[in-house]
Design a protein that fits this description.
By secondary structure, the protein is of the alpha/beta class. The chain has helices spanning 10-19, 53-69, 93-107, 114-117; strands at residues 4-6, 21-24, 28-34, 40-46, 78-84. The structure holds one RNA strand.
Length: 120
RNA sequence: CAGGUAGGGCAAAUGAUCGCGGCCCGUCCCAGACGGGGUGAGGAAAGUCCGGGCUUCACAGGGCAGGAUGCCGGAUAACAUCCGGUGGAGGCAACUCCAAGGAUAGUGCAACAGAAAUAUACCGCCCCGCAGUCCGCUGCGGUGGUAAGGGUGGAAGGGCAGUGUAAGAGACUACCGCCUCUCCGGUAACAGGGAGGGCAUAUGUAAACCCCAUCCGAAGCAAGACCGAACAAAAGCGUUUACGUGGCCCGCCAGCUUUAGGUAGGUCGCUUGAGGUGGCUGGCGACAGUCAUCCUAGACAGAUGAUCAUUCCCCUGCUUUGCAGGGUGACAUAACCCGGCUUAUCGCCCUGCCUGCCAU
């Protein structure tokens, strides 16, 4: 991804959970924390409760793909953690995309104006 | 054709756009970035249940403990796997299934029922004594006999028939079973025959202890090997130019070098291997040998995805040619590598064999 990298260390995850703000909808939960750099860092977490390895991998890929295709719309300098909820077990790409952008709107970290957001 | 049985194979396809991990090549402002090329999950990658390779540690040799295996022979690096047999069970058959050593070394356990459960006399049968008697027998008693009959039980001291006896009993006899010895076929498990023992073993359980035979050192790639900042440590050198302690010197401190140590981090291990495919030879077969040919993922918080279109498949609805709508289109994601086992699985294809029916 051009402007972003992934969040890897457990301590980074913990930091975002403890100090970041969170919003949730039906399928996803998103934590956001400013990291003081130019780049965004994205972490994706899918619990074992959601499903087996195939389902979990598939969900992380869907989330990452949604983020990648809309990377330009997000502001920079953020640590983000996206958690998939069990209800997201068998949703399609388009539903993931819409859920992610909805959360972005709630956090007010997207660059597009609100009128455009409501069309999602 | 129908039903069955055994085995093998596939695991939706094609294209376009965007994207990701290794590899190779090129360019540049060279810890990187960009461009191009090629490559990138499974039959079970799963469970982590066995067996091995590999690595480190331990180890003269022997024993104990503990664990595993358990009909025989073979295959193999090895196995709890596989192949071929033997025995038993099921099926008309093809074929399938079996934890299949020892209960005759010993110990334990066995609900309920039953008189009694490894030992027995409840009823019954018989004998003896006494009493009574309608002379059929009846009643009472016996440190009397008896396991044939009844009843209980999964199991009652081999089975069954006869002889025998007061009634009975391997007490005796035939057949079957068991045990011992022996002959013969087979590498063997075992099969077939003969003789003897009167039976000394005689309910089941060894995935109860146990006995017998054979095998087994431990931990795992987060194994392990190498490089190695920073901080701190030791030794050596050495300026008094700078900070602090001193009136001054030495010394401490500071600086440089070296040394181990091995942290963060990095590199290797890491994919060419008991390897795949095809042919030939040996073998009933598992498999072995040989020749040719191919190189086919190596991530390290972990790449292999998304969208769209067409076809295929499935589902639903209809006018059952077809049309419309719907469907993450089975299970399941490599993590050092192999050989197995077990479990999950939408559909579909191929082959051998058996039984039945029809036709020839």
């Amino acid at each position: 991804m051009k402007y972003s990298e992934s969040l890897k260390k457990n301590s980074d995850f913990k930091n975002v959970y403890r100090n970041g703000k969170s919003y949730a909808n039906r399928y996803l939960v998103m934590y956001v924390l400013e990291n003081g750099t130019e780049r965004n860092r994205l972490g994706i977490s899918v619990s074992k409760k959601v499903g087996n390895s195939v389902i979990r991998h598939h969900l992380t890929r869907l989330v990452r793909e949604s983020y990648r295709l809309h990377e330009d719309m997000f502001q920079s300098g953020l640590d983000m953690v996206v958690i998939a909820r069990t209800t997201a077990k068998d949703i399609s790409y388009h539903e993931v995309e819409s859920a992610l952008l909805h959360l972005g709107g709630l956090h007010k970290i997207t660059k597009i104006d609100k009128k455009k957001m409501e069309s999602f």
